[in-house]
Amino acid sequence: MKKKKLNLRDLNKTSSDNHKRNDGHNHSSPESIGKFKIYVPAIFSFVMLIIGIAMDYFDVAFFKDWIRIVWYAVAYLPVGFPVIKEGWNSIKNGDFFTEFLLMSIATIGAFAIGEYPEGVAVMLFYAVGELFQSAAVKRAKRSIKALLDVRPNEALVYRNNNYVSVNPEIVAIGEKVQVRVGEKIPLDGILLSEKGSFNTAALTGESKPDTIAKGEKVFAGSINLDGVIEIETTKEFKDSSIARILDMVQNATARKSKTELFIRKFARIYTPIVVFLAIGLTFLPYFFVDDYVFNDWLYRALIFLVISCPCALVISIPLGYFGGLGAASKNGILFKGASFLDEMTRITTVVMDKTGTVTKGVFKIKEIKTIDWDEPEFMKYLMAMEEQSTHPIAKAIMEYKADGEDFQAKEVTEVAGKGLKGKVNGKTVLVGNKALMTSNNIEVPSETDNIVESIVMVSIDGKFAGYVIIADELKEDAHEAIKQIRESGISKIIMLSGDKDSITQQVAKEMGIDTAKGGLLPEDKLNEVEHLKKQFNTKVAFIGDGINDAPVLAASDVGIAMGGLGSDVAIETADVIIQTDQPSKIARAIKIGRSTRRIVWQNIGLAFGVKAVVLVLGAGGLATMWEAVFADVGVALLAILNAVRLQKMNWK
C-alpha cells in the first residue's frame, strides 16, 4: 500500500517499506529533517502532559471540564494526529489491521471514557518508542551501509595524452588509470607500477596493508597507501568485484530466514484475532457478569489492544538478522541472505577442497636432494631445462635463486607423460619422473618410493644426480581453522580433492581431518556430497575455491567460497564468501550464525512471554495502560537493544 510520511519518524525507504508490510510501523524519516526537529512534537506533548498531570494532582481550580479536555487534546494531537492519519490511509488502502489502527482506537477510547492523561501517555510513549527504534535500526544498518563508502567516485584515465577525471562506470577494459596516494582503486585491474601497498580493510576486514607486485591483480575499493601508481583495467565497473559485492550486500536482506517469514505471516493473523478478542472482551461480559459496567470492560479492551501490538517481534527479529549480516561483513564474511545465517547453525558436516582452500594453491620447492653435486650447480642444470616449460612445477623451480646465465639448454624435447630430455653445456640432461629415468636405464634410489609429493628427478650424463620435491604450501591458519571448526561442534570434517590421493591423504593426516579422498573429478565431488546429504540428520557445508568446485558449492546445503574477491564464480555460486582467503573464518561464520539465531530466539521468548502475562492481567482488570505501554514499546526497545549487541560481539 502507498506509504505516507509521518512527522515523528525517521524513515529510510528500504526499512520502512519492509516493516510497513509487516505491522504498519514507520521507523525513519527524510534526511532533510533535522535531528532536533524530529523530537519537537514528542517534547511538546511531554511538557503538556506533565503540566496537566501536575494540575490534576494539585486540583487547580480552573483546570476542569472543557479546559481540561482541550488541554489534553492539545497535548495529544502532535503525537496522535500522524498516527490517526496513517491509520485512516491504511484503511482506505485495504489494510485494516495495522498498529496505527490499534493505537488510534486505544487512545481515542481512553479519551471517550475520560482517561485523558493515559490516552496522551500511551500515544506519547509509542511515539518516543518509534524514535528510539529508528535510532536502533540506523545503528544496526551502519556497518553494512559503511561498505557503500568504498564505492569509487572517479577515475583518472589516460586519454589523448593526458589524465582526465571520469566516472568509473564509463571506463573501458584495457584503459590505463592513475591512482594517487589515499585514493580508492576505481576498477579491477593489474598493477603497471613496480609495486604498490593497499588498504583492503573495507573489502576483506583485514587492517594490515597488502603489498602487490607489478602484474598482480588489484581490486576496486582498495585504498592506495604508497605513491602514485598506474593500473590497467581488466573489468568494467559493473562487473568489478566491489560492484558485485555491494549489490550482493544491499540485497542480502531480501533472502529472509524461515523464522523471519513465519513471524511476518504470524503478525498478519495475530493482529486481527486480538482486535476481535478486544471487541468480545468489551461486550460479551454483559451476558455473564451481574455488575457489568461498560466503561470498565472497554478500558480492559483498550489495554488489550495496546498490548497486542506485534512490534517487538516484527522489528527486532529482522533487525537481529540484519545485525548478524553486518557483523559478518565487518569480519570479512559475506552472507548472501539471512536464510544462510540460519543454515550455518544447522551444519553437521564440513567438506572442503584442498588446493586453494587449506593450501595456497601455489607450488613451492620443499626439498632439494643431490648426489655428488653441489646444490647451486645442480639447480642450474635443472633450471636451464625447466626454463623451456610453462608447467606450474617448472615455474616453482624457476623461483630458486641462482645465477644460471652461463647454463644454456639445447635440443630440448618433451617425452610424453615423462618429462624433458636435452643438452646443457654439452651434457645430456634428463628431467622428469621415475618412468623417464627407468626408460633410460638410470638407477633411482629406493628412498624416492616413499615420497608422496610431486618429485622432479634429474640425471646428468647417464647418472642420477638428485631430485627436487615440489609441494603446495598449507595456509598459515589451516591448522587453526580445523581446530576451531571442531571446537564449534562440527562432528565430521572431510577433504575432497582433485589432487593425487597420496598427497590428499598426507595433507588430511597432517591437519587431523577425519576422511579424505583424492584424484576426484568435479562430478565425483558432487556425488560424494549428494551421498552425504542423504544421510539422516546431516547438513553439509562445502568449502571450495569457487571455480572447479562450482557444482558442489551449488548442491551443498551451504556453499562457502574462499577468496571471493578474485573469483567471479565464487560470488555467483556460493552462499557465503570468505573474502580474506582464510579458512579460520569458517568457524567464525558458524559462531556468528549461532549468535544471531540465539538473540533472535531470545527476543521471541521475551516478546511472547511478557505480552502473554500482561494480556491475561489486562483481561482480568489487573493491568493498567502503563503496563500495556511496557508490554508494547518497552519490550520492543529491550528486544532491539538485545539485537544491537551483535554489533559489539567478538568471535575471535
Automatic annotation (TrEMBL):
Residues 151-250 form the P-type ATPase A domain. Its EC number is 7.2.2.12. It is an enzyme of class 7 (translocase). The chain crosses the membrane at residues 36-54, 66-84, 96-114, 120-137, 269-289, 301-322, 599-619, 625-644. Gene3D superfamilies: Calcium-transporting ATPase, cytoplasmic domain N, Calcium-transporting ATPase, cytoplasmic transduction domain A, HAD superfamily/HAD-like. InterPro entries: ATPase_P-typ_cyto_dom_N, ATPase_P-typ_P_site, ATPase_P-typ_TM_dom_sf, ATPase_P-typ_transduc_dom_A_sf, ATPase_P-type_domA, Cation_Transport_ATPase_IB, HAD-like_sf, HAD_sf. GO terms for cellular component: plasma membrane. Keywords: ATP-binding, Cell membrane, Membrane, Metal-binding, Nucleotide-binding, Translocase, Transmembrane, Transmembrane helix. It comes from the Bacteria. It is found in: Cell membrane; Membrane. PANTHER family: CADMIUM/ZINC-TRANSPORTING ATPASE HMA2-RELATED (PTHR48085), CADMIUM_ZINC-TRANSPORTING ATPASE HMA4-RELATED (PTHR48085:SF5). This is P-type Zn(2+) transporter. The lineage of its organism: Bacteria, Pseudomonadati, Bacteroidota, Flavobacteriia, Flavobacteriales.
